[in-house]
Specification:
Two copies of one chain form a homodimer.
Chain A (H helix, E strand, L loop, with lengths): L2 E6 L7 H16 L3 E6 L5 H12 L5 H25 L4 E4 L1 H4 L1 E3 L8 E4 L2 H8 L3 E5 L2 E3 L5 E3 L4 H12 L4 E6 L20 E3 H12 L4 H10 L3 E5 L7 E4 L12 E5 L2 E10 L4 H11 L7 E3 L6 E9 L3 H15 L3 E5 L2 E7 L9 H11 L6 E5 L2 E7 L3 H11 L7
Parallel strand pairs in A: 1-2, 1-9, 2-6, 3-6, 9-11, 10-12
Antiparallel strand pairs in A: 4-5, 7-8, 11-12, 13-18, 14-16, 14-17, 15-16, 18-20, 19-20
Helix pairs in contact in A: 1-3, 2-3, 6-8, 7-8, 9-10
Chain lengths: 406, 406
């Protein structure tokens, strides 16, 4: 008998009919002799509806209250699924963040899990119940309800799996796994059977959108085997697991792109110690997460600094950059929304030379100009004009031979 | 500076606009220097929507989960009102049943409050916050969410007022107070300025519907002055308070009627000790609350037994009565849905003779036949044919001089 955590996202629990289908799947897993804890998201659209109500009340709604509001979405789904399970003769109990107890910090709307006291959950499972846990939510030291931010139910599921030492964490979603590229952009994309946590981290953060990045961090930290799969079929999906030697053979695991960033360039900063810190400290204070940072080689004691930020933060980031630029005597600030970032990701890059230059050549062959480059051990990212982004993904995907079975 | 509890029902918080109006009223009370705890219901229609979802999942949904589901309605309102208050510059925090802590028994869907640990609430108020408490909900010894049944937010408000020793508990509703009769039925009905807990209990249980009966019991037990008033005007409403000598002058405080009962008659029961208990024990076990019970004078060692039950329970009650009738050898069971109960209520009845006979005469003058009679110290109820119920209310109301100012 295994201990399995199953997580179902918003589209999998979109209406009573789908919730019943989820209940059948959970019941089938339990009928195979497994002990099951389920983590659910809000019914699709529900979180937006709730936050919309909150925003209708005030221009700057209290974040503590937005969390109390949004947490009701998962509470509703967990109760409905417990009801559906009981209707199939499966004993079930819903558990909310404060009942499990999922303890978080007090960063409302984007809290982080500090600890899980799984004694209540373990008791529920030992009594033969399916535990239906409301994802996305926790409770802080004051007893206030917190939420983990968008996609937080994945993190709940993996953290729960780690806390109860589950044999696997199954993430059910509306796609059947992680692909080598976005199939909508790249028809030759194929499903990846196994991928390492490290590669998944880079793919997720770059926009693969099947699995929330923080959940992968937690899975890696605690070695939780994660199985991303479709809630609409029984076909195996993609296993996200610890690295082993077999991964080295694959040079590039996937190609991904992101059109939701804005590139900001600060021209002719004085090239002095501490200048870069002065630029990024106020951005961090404003909670703007900076993605790529590229500083060009300096000349005549000045340097150009380019960075990318989520487009939703671009306005604020540009204002901050302009303020700092004035203070430190930089020449000026420009920004460009019309960009895309394409990236190749693969553990094999660590032991194979020339991957980056091959990427640049493949893009150049299509006349695609590279505006900025950033590399890490297992990733190379290029900023290009937005209009080329689909073309770039296809060219890189097929150029690195991802379309064929490995 | 007073400590005031204000409770707003579903129609008062039906949409963001109304919630903002509630926030303004709370802010105004606070601006007068009072400390305020607010109790809110779910937005009107929301509880039905949630329970409808639950019932769409299963024929007999788990009651524990129905409570977790329904409790989200008040959670949403409390968060929205806290947001609206903060937007007006009033510091506010929502508090849920498990946060206040409102401890109840485990009778899901109809739990009773056992205790309130108001330390968290007092701390919130001392810090200068308005506490916005989700009504209708609590938590049992296991940490499961419970709800108090329909109208439970009134009970939450009064129990909170008792726990923090508030100076008053204001119940805001869509009517401007308690009337001597239903104004829709009786045009000469007038608002009552002051009424005793005892009278209010009889009026509420008989269908006055302004104030949940259990909340009046709690108010009476702890001596909480309750002010029932309109959320749409500043006109004073009705104070529900402890009895004093001035009440004795008023013989009949109000006339009320109930069309939602069914009369069940068991004919020719053996007139033996224990027979009546055998009839009502299984009804109690089935959680059917029996209202009037009338046993006629026995003849030839048999007796007829008549009782009324809520119409929603009539089918089940009749089945149980028929089963018991067979077991004990009664002649048969009849039931009648086409009835109404009209009642007169007043503390003054205790010291004035002839009130009941005057009621019977007033009904007889209109040709209204009385099918059953039940009396208590401060109430006389008659069962009549349903078609007469509006006429009976008007005749009694004006016959006892209620249309004029006292």
């Amino acid at each position: 008998m295994s201990l399995i955590v199953q997580k179902f996202g918003g589209t999998s629990v979109a209406n009573p009919e789908r919730i019943r289908a989820v209940a059948k799947r959970v019941a089938a897993t339990r009928a195979e002799g497994h002990s099951v804890a389920v983590v659910v998201s809000a019914m699709s659209g529900e979180t937006n509806r709730l936050l919309g109500l909150g925003r209708a009340m005030a221009g700057r709604p209290l974040e503590r209250e937005l969390d109390a509001l949004a947490a009701t979405g998962e509470q509703v789904t967990s109760a409905l699924l417990a009801i559906a399970l009981a209707d199939l003769g499966v004993p079930a109990r819903s558990l909310l963040g404060h009942q499990v107890r999922i303890l978080t910090d007090s960063a409302f709307t984007k809290a982080r899990i500090k600890a899980i006291d799984a004694s209540q959950l373990s008791k529920t499972l030992e009594q033969g119940h399916v535990a239906v846990i409301a994802g996305f939510q926790g409770i802080d030291d004051d007893g206030s309800i917190t939420t983990l931010g968008r996609g937080g139910s994945d993190t709940t599921a993996v953290a729960i799996a780690a806390a109860i030492k589950a044999d696997a964490c199954e993430i059910y979603t509306d796609v059947d796994g992680v692909y080598t590229a976005d199939p909508n952009v790249c028809p030759s994309a194929r499903k990846i059977d196994r991928i390492s946590y490290e590669e998944m981290l880079e793919l997720a953060s770059l926009g693969a959108k099947v699995l929330q990045i923080r959940s992968v961090e937690v899975a890696m930290k605690y070695g939780v085997p994660v199985h991303v799969r479709s809630s609409f079929s029984d076909v195996p999906g993609t296993w996200v697991v610890g690295e082993d030697k077999s991964f080295e053979a694959v040079i590039v695991a996937g190609v991904t792109s992101d059109k939701n960033e804005t590139k900001i360039t600060v021209r002719q900063l004085p090239d002095e110690p501490g200048i870069v810190a002065r630029m990024f400290e106020p951005l961090a204070a404003a909670n703007i997460s900076v993605d790529m940072i590229i500083q060009n080689v300096s000349a005549d004691r000045t340097t150009d600094l380019t960075f990318t930020v989520p487009r939703t933060d671009a306005q604020k980031a540009r204002e901050i950059a302009e303020q700092v630029a004035r203070e430190i005597g930089a020449k000026g600030v420009t920004s460009d929304d019309d960009i895309a970032k394409v990236s190749i990701v693969g553990l094999g890059m660590r032991s194979h030379a020339g991957i980056a230059s091959r990427m640049f050549r493949l893009l150049a062959n299509e006349g695609i100009n590279i505006e900025a480059i950033s590399t890490s051990e297992i990733k190379v990212s290029c900023v290009i004009a937005a209009k080329y982004h689909e073309l770039a993904v296809r060219v890189l995907h097929d150029g690195f031979g991802l379309g064929k079975a490995p």
